[in-house]
Amino acid sequence: MCVVAKKLAVIGAGLMGSGIAQVSAQAGWDVVLRDVTDEALRRGTDGIRASYEKFVSKGKLEAEEAERALGRITTTTDLDAAADADVVVEAVFEKIEVKREIFRALDELVKDDTILASNTSAIPITKIAAATRRPERVVGTHFFSPVPMMGLCELVRGHKTSDETLAAAREFAEGVGKTCIVVNRDVAGFVTTRLISALVVEAAKLYESGVATAEDIDTACKLGFGHAMGPLATADLTGVDILLHATDNIYTESQDEKFAPPEIMRRMVDAGDIGRKSGEGFYRY
Ligand SMILES: NC(=O)c1ccc[n+]([C@@H]2O[C@H](COP(=O)([O-])OP(=O)(O)OC[C@H]3O[C@@H](n4cnc5c(N)ncnc54)[C@H](O)[C@@H]3O)[C@@H](O)[C@H]2O)c1
Predict the structure, then answer these.
(1) In angstroms, rounded to a whole number, what is the distance separating the alpha carbons of residues 260 and 59?
(2) Statement to judge: residues 109 and 49 lie in one domain
């Protein structure tokens, strides 16, 4: 019997979209990766190829398996290529209007039973789903970076997401090797971004007020709580700008003071000290 592979469309070939395409192709999905420029698609597929090669060189993946997986990925700048997808995962910039525009267009295009997922790390799924006429088929699949290495996928139920859609999203995410947690209420920042935001905000306040050095705050979390990385080193790695934006979003929505970013985070972003990518953040690189 011939089993027809399921088709996945990934919208956005950046860090997350390419990672999602990579693990899905490896799990047997036919993947079409869509971005707005050929250059972005080339960067995305170069990254996927390099990552597969690394797994092969470490003996974690057979070279033929990597070749087969690469062969399952096609690229395009045409959104119409998503028309026959069973699942679509959107992973474009964290801008609500860009995401809503894509979901509006996908709603016109895809099959009635297609699952529409967003990889947003903080935007309420309900706001994205409201751009479609099928909010029950829209769900959050928040993968973690780097996708080929990280085991977690946070599934987010929008206000109208159906049980069937959540189950299908779980089947997809588990099928590509992830363990899922379910966010049952569509709160800004979900579970994971709220937790890391609260920790980073408090760590930055302690640092700002001179209670302890960045090194000591991070050491407290590593040796005291068993965290793999301290919150300030995490902020530098993720980007202070990205965390400021995320915490600001959660604060605006929740009006909960514990998410109010301290002045130091704003001034660091104003000064361009956004962490590893700029050479300076809470630490110097
Ligand atoms: N980077 C992370 O650590 C991380 C972790 C979890 C979730 N996320 C979320 O995943 C999403 C993507 O993040 P990223 O880090 O991969 O961003 P990125 O900047 O690396 O990639 C975004 C890509 O989207 C493309 N794009 C923009 N508009 C598009 C459109 N209309 N159609 C198709 N492609 C379009 C861009 O050209 C770019 O290649 C965001 O919502 C982000 O919040 C990021």
Answers:
(1) 46
(2) yes
CATH number for the domain spanning 55: value is 3.40.50.720
Give residues (CB < 6 A) around ligand 1: 11-17, 34-36, 40, 91-94, 98, 102, 119-121, 142, 144-145
Length of the chain measured in residues: 285
Instruction: Report yes or no on whether pTM surpasses 0.70.
Output: yes
Residue to probe by mutation, ligand 1, list 121, 197, 237, most atoms within 8 Å of CB: 121
> 93 C-alpha vs ligand 1 centroid, how far in Å?
4
Say how many domains are in the chain.
Answer: 2
Look at residues 24, 1, 2 and name the one whose alpha carbon lies nearest to residue 10: 24
Residue 263 belongs to domain with CATH number:
1.10.1040.50
Integer Cα distance of 194 and 203 in angstroms: 14
- 25 plus 149 within the same structural domain: yes
Mutation choice for ligand 1 from 16, 43, 89, CB with most ligand atoms inside 8 A = 16
Q: Is 285 within a domain?
A: no
Cα(116)–Cα(135) distance, rounded to whole angstroms?
A: 9
What residue's CA is closest to ligand 1, atom 20? 14
Q: Per-residue confidence of the chain (285 residues) as pLDDT tens digits?
A: 445 679 999 999 999 999 999 999 999 999 999 999 999 999 999 999 999 999 999 999 999 999 999 999 999 999 999 999 999 999 999 889 999 999 999 999 999 999 999 999 888 999 999 999 999 999 999 999 999 999 999 999 999 999 999 999 999 999 999 999 999 999 988 999 999 999 999 999 999 999 999 999 999 999 999 999 999 999 999 999 999 998 998 999 899 999 999 999 999 999 999 999 999 999 999
Instruction: Indicate whether 120 belongs to any domain.
Output: yes
**One domain for residues 119 and 240:** no
Residues spanned by the domain of 236: 193-271
Q: Which phi and psi angles does 278 have, rounded to 5°? A: -105, -5
Distance from the alpha carbon of residue 21 to the mean position of ligand 1, in angstroms: 13
